[in-house]
Amino acid sequence: MTRAIHFASSATTAGAVMFRVFVAEPALHPSPDGYAIVRARLAALTWTGLAIAAATGLVWLVLQTMSMMGLPFGEAMRSGAMLTVANETQFGEVSKVRAALALLLAACLVLDWFAPSRWLALVAALGLVGAIAWTGHAGSTLGELGNLHLTADVLHLVSASAWIGGLLGLSILFAVGRRRSDFEWGSLQLDAVLRFSTLGMISVAALILSGIVNAWILVGSFRALLVTDYGQLLLLKIVAFVAMLGFAAVNRFWLTPQLALVMNAQADTNALSALARNTLTEIALGLAIFAVVGVLGTLHPAIHLVN
To answer: Where are the alpha helices (DSSP H) in the chain?
Structure first.
C-alpha cells in the first residue's frame, strides 16, 4: 500500500507540473485572472502530492530497512540501520537523490515568481518520478538489457504521470470553468482540452511502447502471463488501461468536437459535463492501476517462474 500511495503521489506531483507547463500556461495566458485561479489550485495539488510523496517515501525507507535487516520497527529506528540502508544500498542512494529532487522542487514552488524556476521545477518533478525506476525490477536488471529496461521504465513512469497526473489538472480546469460563463473562458478551456488531448496521445503511445518492452523483459511469454500471480495482476492492469483508453477515445473523438461546436452555440451544452465525468472515471482507473503497480513491484517477475 505504501508503494502504491508513493507512486500515485509522485505521479500526481509530476503530472500537475507538466499540466501547468504544457497545457494551462500556454492555453490560459490570455485570461490572467482565470489562469491565476487555476495556477493556485495546481500549486496546492503539487504541494499536496509532494508532501504525501515525502511522507510515504520515509515510511518506505523504514519498511525497506526492516525487511533488509530483519529488524522490528523499534530497533530499526534506534539502531542506525536506516543510515546503513541509506548509505550502502542502491535503494538508499536513489532515495537520497529523490529527496534532493523533492527539496529542489519545493524551492522552485516557493520561488514561483522567478520564471526559470518553473522549468527547473519541471526537471525536478520528472527526475522525482523517473528515478523510481531504480527502486524496482529495472534497477536490478544487469547489462545492456538492464539499460533498456531502465529506459523503458523511466519512459513508462513519466508518461503515466503526464496522463494520469495531468487528468487531475484537467479536473481542476473543469471545476474552475463551472464558475465562469464568459465566452472567452470557454474558448480558452477548449484550447486547454485540445492541448491535453495531444499530451495524452503522446503519453499513451509511450506507455504502450514502454509497456511492451517491460512485459517482454519481465513476463517473456503468453503462458507466464496467464499462470503466474505477476502475469495475472499485469493483465488486470492492462484491462484498467484499456478502459482508460476507451474513455479517453470518447473524450477526444466524440465529446471534444461537441465542445468545439458549443463554442459556436450549435451543440449540446452537456458535452463539458460529460468530459468532466469521464475525466473523474479515468482518474479512478488510474489510481487502481497505481495500486496494482505497487503490488507488482513486490512480486517476482513472471519470467523467473515459468520455463
So the answer is: 2-19, 25-28, 32-69, 73-78, 81-88, 90-110, 115-130, 143-160, 166-177, 183-218, 222-227, 229-250, 256-262, 271-296
pLDDT above 50 (res 283) = yes
Give the total residue count for the chain.
307
Contact status, residue 233 vs residue 291, Cβ threshold 8 Å: no
Per-residue CA distances from 178 to 25, 172, 252, 256, 272 (Å): 19, 10, 20, 16, 9
Q: How far apart are CA 184 and CA 148, in angstroms?
A: 46
Question: Which residues, 6 or more positions from 303, have their beta carbon under 8 angstroms from its beta carbon?
Answer: 217, 218, 219, 220, 221, 224
Q: Which residues constitute the domain of residue 104?
A: 2-304
pLDDT tens-digit readout, 7-23: 899 999 999 999 999 99
How many alpha carbons lie under 13 Å from residue 273 in its C-beta half-sphere? 3
Asked whether the beta carbons of 263 and 186 are under 8 A apart, the reply is yes
Per the structure, how many domains does the chain have?
1
